[in-house]
Amino acid sequence: MKFVGTVVVLVAVGFGIKSFLDKSNPAVIKDPVYAEMRIDATFGIREINVVLFGEAVNMDDCNLRTENTWKEVMSGCPTCVISPPKCTDDLPPRYARLFDNVAIPSTYLAFSRGSRFERNGRLVVYGLTRDEGLAVCDQLRTSAAENYSGKMECIAPSE
Length: 159
Hints:
38% of the residues lie in helices and 27% in strands. The chain is built from 4 helices and 7 strands. The chain has helices spanning 2-24, 59-76, 93-96, 130-144; strands at residues 33-43, 46-56, 81-82, 86-88, 108-112, 121-126, 151-155.
């Protein structure tokens, strides 16, 4: 009887965890909160600016994801100037259009979630020529594919 009671408790805990995951990782993010993270780096006389915009389920999801991402970036780029991440309810129209894969003057990586545990995002790299931007984007896409199951594509800059 003790075994049956333990199984019932484990099943109840499992359903509780599943319910939490379903709410914190829904199949469709209906009213996203947007993360914005900016990094500036100087290489010789050139300055490169990288901006990551990501959709999150809610403010808690956004804050947790930006905090974790920010720590990883800081450890991987000791010479970068990293602005504090921001979470907002809306993106200005010039950035919101990135989620429609509209071409802008700079190349960017568009990634669309492949599972409910991933998030949609756009990674813009400013300060590169068209060819450099496409090459860097392709390298980022290849590197990110190891940890991301969703669709990723490089959006070429507008003419």
